[in-house]
Amino acid sequence: MARYVIDLADKKDEPDLRRILRENYMDGSIELTFRREPDFFRSIEIDGEKVQIVVGRDLKKDKVIGFGIRAIRKLYINGKLENIGYLGNLRLDSEYRNGLMLARGYRYFKQLHKDKKAMIYLTSIVEDNKIAINVLTSGKAGFPPYNDYGTYLSYTIGLKYRKKLRNSDISILRFENGKIDDIVKFIHNEGKKKQFFPFYTKEDIQGKTKKLLGLKTENIFVAYRNGNIVGTMCIWDQSQIKQTVVHGYNKTMNIIRYPWNILSNII
Fold first, then answer.
1. Torsion of CA 100, 101, 104, 105, to 10 degrees
2. What is the torsional sign of CA 140, 146, 148, 153?
3. CATH 3.40.630.30-classified regions of the chain
4. CATH of domain 4-151
5. What does the pLDDT read at residue 211?
6. For residues 107 and 101, what is the distance between their CA atoms, to the nearest angstrom?
7. Other CB atoms within 10 A of residue 108 CB
8. Cβ of 75: how many Cβ atoms within 10 Å?
9. Which regions of the chain are under pLDDT 50?
10. Cα–Cα distance between 126 and 27 in angstroms, integer?
11. What was the pLDDT predicted at 264?
């Protein structure tokens, strides 16, 4: 009997899935753990219309040793809605990181793809996680060919400073349910202009589905110019289902972070 098995997760695996996220951090200048407390399965409801969790099991130790997620959702590509897959959240306990389990996991992903639910797949990797990039893009051991489609930038907002709007003809108002149709139309029109932009319905925004779980309509803001919508944004607090925790810093970041913290309080 084989010691290691790859299959789909079920509810009894939930504690192991959260344990793996807590214990395995992402390499980089800032070492992070991306957690899904207190309920892993509830947290993935925002990941797509169809979500499958592929797990690796060590039958000898009777535990889950790693997992990855295949999520399918509607995104805009070239102005059209397509079913796009996302392969991500790849985690593996350190003692099993010889490449073999990961390759077997990707072969299982390939079997799942036989349902033809996704046109293509996306994967995002933290830029300075060189180990993951080198392994996943090697094309060896059954890994699919990855093409680099560019860099995602995550912006942060400084909470200490308040700046006036540069364009005084723009007004920003909180969400009004009576304007929901106009807001959805604006989001769809803008989404068509961008690659991999997610598709949202009126029901999603109003909280009648789980796609935007935890988003409160009072935290949605709309920018108007001359009575027309020119922008939208929201404050989506996902901390009740997902958390990003700093695990540590590499040597360079450890050296500079203390003077940086001091300067940031002065500037």
1. -140
2. negative
3. 4-151
4. 3.40.630.30
5. 96
6. 10
7. 19
8. 23
9. none
10. 8
11. 67
Whether residue 104 contacts residue 120, with contact meaning beta carbons closer than 8 Å, is answered with no
Give the whole-angstrom CA distance, residue 216 versus residue 237. 9
CA distance 247 to 24: 9
Please state the three-class secondary structure of the chain as a single string: CCCEEEEECCHHHHHHHHHHHHHCCECCCEEEEEECCCCHHHHHHHCCCEEEEEEEEECCCCEEEEEEEEEEEEEEECCEEEEEEEEEEEEECHHHCCCHHHHHHHHHHHHHHHHCCCCCEECCCCCCCHHHHHHHCCCCCCCCCCCCCCCCCCCCCCCCCCCCCCCCCEEEEECCHHHHHHHHHHHHHHHCCCCCEECCCHHHHCCCCCCCCCCCHHHEEEEEECCEEEEEEECCCCCCCCEEEEEEECHHHHHHHHHHHHHHHHC
The tokens for 136 are 């996943």
**End-to-end C-alpha distance for the chain, whole angstroms:** 63
pLDDT of residue 66: 97
pLDDT at 44: 97
Which pLDDT score, from 0 to 100, does residue 252 have? Answer: 76
State residue 267's pLDDT score: 59
Residue that has been written with the tokens 């009576």 in this structure:
178
